[in-house]
Design a protein that fits this description.
Blueprint (H helix, E strand, L loop, with lengths): L13 H19 L4 H4 L10 H20 L13 H4 L4 H14 L2 H15 L8 E4 L2 E4 H23 L7 H18 L5 E5 L3 E5 L13 E4 L1 H8 L5 H6 L3 E4 L14
Parallel strand pairs: 3-5
Antiparallel strand pairs: 1-2, 3-4, 5-6
Helix pairs in contact: 1-3, 1-6, 1-7, 1-8, 3-5, 3-6, 3-7, 7-8, 8-9
Length: 264
């Protein structure tokens, strides 16, 4: 069997990604301003974070863009997509420390107002190929904004479940998040024996084995976008999703349990 070709990075429309980030952030901001002290004090379901700290993390994820744009551009890009997904786990402890300090620095309303003002002032004129220095290494601004759709979408889902909210998901943000995490799986398990379908946003082939060429693939996994992002980030276990019929899997190479979560 010939060696697998290096996977080409998926392209993302920079203007649509910018709009998606700002729109999803606005959805979150509107909801956070309605939270009561009791809701803010609830456990977030993410380690020892409270809902207040979760909202601070959502805010900090966007504020990171503003801070990076205010610093000098690094000389070369070091991290691209979807490799970013594999670089974040090692930063979990310092991120958690920073989130707690950020949450304690001001109330949610002030944090969101300040962040919204800065990002709307700095982002529109920044070119997509502008290099920025972020925690995992230097990245193109356009690529980093795609990672912000992951942060915003995944944690919007966390916030909805922890605080009993119904924050809407921007369609473009959900699409970009789904595609990035699907592509990360394909990088983690290169091959073409299994097709993973996440309609309407993504289809990828992965897992070593006989290459499928025509007709219905022998190994197929299919699920919805929200279930996929929960699987890819460890919010839902593979066995749990199978048992509850949130995912369908057929074929001897369709068991993704050992490959999930992707972001680990």
């Amino acid at each position: 069997m010939p060696p697998a070709k290096k996977r080409k990075q998926r392209g993302y429309d920079s203007d649509k990604t910018r709009t998606a980030v700002l729109t999803q952030f606005a959805h979150v901001r509107d909801a956070v301003l309605t939270l009561t002290p009791e809701q803010l004090a609830r456990p977030a379901g993410l380690g020892d974070w409270t809902v207040r700290e979760l909202t601070a993390h959502l805010c900090m994820g966007v504020e990171t863009v503003s801070r990076a744009l205010e610093r000098p551009a690094p000389p070369v890009a070091e991290v691209g997509l979807p490799e970013w997904a594999f670089a974040t786990a090692a930063q979990a402890a310092p991120i958690s420390d920073d989130v707690k300090a950020y949450a304690a620095s001001a109330g949610p309303a002030e944090l969101f107002e300040r962040t919204a003002g800065r990002i709307t002032a700095l982002l529109p004129d920044a070119p997509a190929d502008r290099l920025i220095a972020v925690r995992v290494g230097a990245m193109r601004l356009g690529d980093f904004l795609v990672t912000r759709t992951v942060e915003l979408t995944v944690h919007t889902d966390d916030l909805n479940r922890a605080a009993g909210l119904d924050i809407p998901f921007d369609r473009q943000a959900l699409a970009a998040c789904t595609r990035l995490l699907a592509d990360a799986l394909a990088v983690k398990a290169p091959g073409a024996s299994t097709e993973v379908r996440i309609p309407p946003y993504a289809v990828v082939q992965c897992v070593e084995g006989p290459r499928h060429t025509r007709g219905t693939p022998p190994n197929v996994v299919e699920t919805d976008p929200l279930t996929w992002l929960r699987l890819a980030t460890g919010r839902t276990a593979w066995s749990e999703a199978l048992a509850s019929a949130q995912v369908s899997a057929s074929g001897e190479r369709a068991d993704l349990g050992a490959l999930l979560p992707v972001m680990s």
